[in-house]
Design brief:
elongated; 16% helix; four-stranded antiparallel β-sheet; 102 residues; alpha+beta; SH3 type barrels; single chain
C-alpha cells in the first residue's frame, strides 16, 4: 500500500493542456504542513526527567525516548522540551519540538 504522505514526483494533466510537473519542493512543503497539523493535535502535559530514563506525558499517554505516538517517534526529552520525528515520511526526517507550558 502506498504511503499517502510520501513526497513523489508526479505529473498533472489538466483537460486541454500539457503536462505540468509538480516539483519535490512543493510536495515536501505540503507534507510539512500536514505533519504540523497532526502535531497540533498533540498536547505536552508533563516531563519527568531523571538520570536514568526520562519520560513525558503527551495527551493521555506516558512515552519514553524511542516510543511512538500518533505517527511520531519521541527522539529526545529535555527539561523543557520534547523532540518528535515524523516516522511516515520515508525521506528526510521532519522534526517537531514541543515546549512545556510555563
Amino acid at each position: 500500500m502506498k504511503d499517502p504522505f510520501a513526497a513523489d514526483m508526479f505529473l498533472l494533466t489538466p483537460a486541454g493542456a500539457g503536462s505540468e510537473k509538480i516539483d519535490m519542493q512543493d510536495a515536501a512543503a505540503t507534507l510539512q504542513r500536514q505533519v504540523k497539523l497532526r502535531a497540533k493535535k498533540l498536547k505536552l502535559r508533563s516531563i519527568i526527567k531523571s538520570d536514568t530514563r526520562s519520560c513525558c506525558m503527551i495527551n493521555d499517554k506516558i512515552v519514553y525516548e524511542g516510543d511512538s505516538i500518533k505517527g511520531f517517534r519521541v527522539e529526545k526529552i529535555t527539561q523543557r522540551t520534547v523532540v518528535l520525528v515524523w516516522e511516515q515520511s520515508g525521506h528526510d526526517n521532519i522534526q517537531i519540538t514541543m515546549k512545556l507550558a510555563e
